[in-house]
Specification:
Blueprint: H1 4-11, H2 20-30, E1 32-38, E2 44-48, E3 53-56, H3 71-82, H4 88-97, E4 102-106, E5 111-115, E6 121-126
Antiparallel strand pairs: 1-2, 1-4, 2-3, 4-5, 5-6
Length: 129
Amino acid sequence: MFTAEQIKAAHSKVKSGAEFPSYVKEIKALGVTHYEAYVTDGHIDYHGANDHIAKVPAKYDPLIIAENSNGEEFKSELVAHQQGKTDFLTFIKMCATYGIEKWAICMDKMTCTYYDKAGNEVLVEQIPQ
């Protein structure tokens, strides 16, 4: 089963949103079935078979997530990030500003779903393969 250290090693290769699909493929090969990434402090819970969980602790000081999400502005900024125009920390701060509390990756469906503080889906995207 995968470890938090293996996940961190794979994530260290991601410099912008452009590398994200490769990262997903790499952790899927490790046995990750899905994960949730929390914008507030950067902690991530990775899930695998047989209820296996690897937790990656907080990465930065807590951010305040906007109470209301702004899906259209978020989508616009997300596209720029995916094109490699922003780094990860800039992306995280943008998520907080536009009310994104977390995102969840589903390896079976190869989707990334962004949620607001109320648990509403703001955006569901297919991950390029």
